[in-house]
Amino acid sequence: MERVIVIGGGIAGMKTALDLNRRGIGVTIIEKENRLGGKVLGWHRLFPTFTPANEVVDTLKAEVASSEIDVRLGTCATALTEHSVTLSDGTVLDCDAVVLCSGFTLFDARIKEEYGYGIYDNVITSADLEEMFNQGRVGLKNGGRPRRIAFLHCVGSRDEKVCQRHCSKVCCVTGVKQAIEMKKLFPEADVFNFYMDIRMFGPGYEELYREAQQSYNIHFIRGRISEASPTIEGRLQIKAEDTLTGRPLKISVDMLVLLIGMRSNDDNASLAESAGLQLAQSGFMAPRDLFLSNVRSNRDGIFYAGTVTAPKSIGEVLNEGAAVADAVTEYLS
Ligand SMILES: Cc1cc2nc3c(=O)[nH]c(=O)nc-3n(C[C@H](O)[C@H](O)[C@H](O)COP(=O)(O)OP(=O)(O)OC[C@H]3O[C@@H](n4cnc5c(N)ncnc54)[C@H](O)[C@@H]3O)c2cc1C
Ligand code: SF4
């Protein structure tokens, strides 16, 4: 039986493995964490429908568990060729093809020191907010209810200074979804989203953006916050410029949510070097082309699915899992 190794057990890896296995191909998933699911395990409800994230992850995990897919947890892939994958303990696994589904890395908001993440209380990231939703304890550090909340778009994306020029694609709609969720929890609070551009690329996203304004009275301000600093009353003062009116703006808020970007994994470079793979300028893996071969790498027998090549939504990632299974089957035959 032919065997394909899938590196990464997030939603891309699970969907790819399932679609290959359904075609009678033997599959091994290599996942460095001790559980399958990837980043989606950390999310609460998904845009644009507010579907619980665990519904998606648990469905895929249950299908993997009842299949014949060989799952190796807690082991990292450190090198690959089209016929082998090397693991962190030095083991080399042989195979007939490899699909790299190793995903993305969350931007570390501490790098943007001017926003005070990790320094001031109540400056959190969008990923932290998902965790708070999951734990059912959303609020201020002192247990109080926020009266004014600001969301800041493009933190660690579209930013030359931190070498992340690309748009992370999903943070605009995540910011709209989270602003609505905060307004539902704290109807008395004023919620502001500070953005450079609003990018609502998917079905239902623009509608959600309208709903945020019309039904929830969320304020969208075109401008970027330049800094956040603490006030003596324990709030946060943020300085920004409203770029539509050209006026500088200073407001005090109780909570600042940084919509952090999706950046490429640090080990993409060493994985690429081990196999002669091409990287895009952004550090994500570069597909053979962006049209007819977007799940193929520049090397025959090595394929990609999911956010290892660029930021994507879950729907797009799942479609790629199906597309890559087609491409691998065609290659093996
Ligand atoms: C804050 C935030 C909220 C989001 N909310 C939504 C939403 O509501 N709706 C939506 O559609 N999308 C959402 N997204 C996007 C969504 O998270 C991604 O589309 C999804 O996680 C991509 O899955 P993936 O499998 O490609 O990557 P990942 O989720 O990153 O999974 C990759 C897996 O590979 C493993 N791995 C990495 N390197 C190795 C290695 N060398 N060896 C072995 N294993 C390895 C990792 O441990 C991980 O389990 C959100 C993104 C962010 C940042
Ligand atoms: S999706 Fe929106 S917030 Fe995210 S990087 Fe692109 S423009 Fe900025």
Features:
binds flavin-adenine dinucleotide, 20 strands, five-stranded parallel beta sheet, 333 residues, alpha/beta, elongated, binds iron/sulfur cluster
Q: Note the beta-strand portion.
A: 25-35%
Query: Which value, in Å, is the CA radius of gyration?
Result: 21 Å
Query: Whole-number average pLDDT?
Result: 97
Helix content class: 25-40%
What's the number of helices? 7
CATH architecture of the largest domain: 3-Layer(bba) Sandwich
**Low-confidence runs of at least 5 consecutive residues:** none
- Overall domain count: 2
CATH topology of the largest domain: FAD/NAD(P)-binding domain
Strand tally: 20
Taking the alpha carbons of the first and last residues, their distance comes to: 12 Å
Give the strand line-up of the largest sheet: 5-2-1-9-20
Named once each, the bound ligands are:
flavin-adenine dinucleotide, iron/sulfur cluster
Instruction: State the order of secondary-structure elements, H for helix, E for strand.
Output: EHEEEHEEEEEEEHEHEHEEEEEEHEH
**Main β sheet profile:** 5 strands, parallel
Structural class: alpha/beta
CATH class wording of the largest domain = Alpha Beta
CATH superfamily of the largest domain: FAD/NAD(P)-binding domain
Shape: elongated
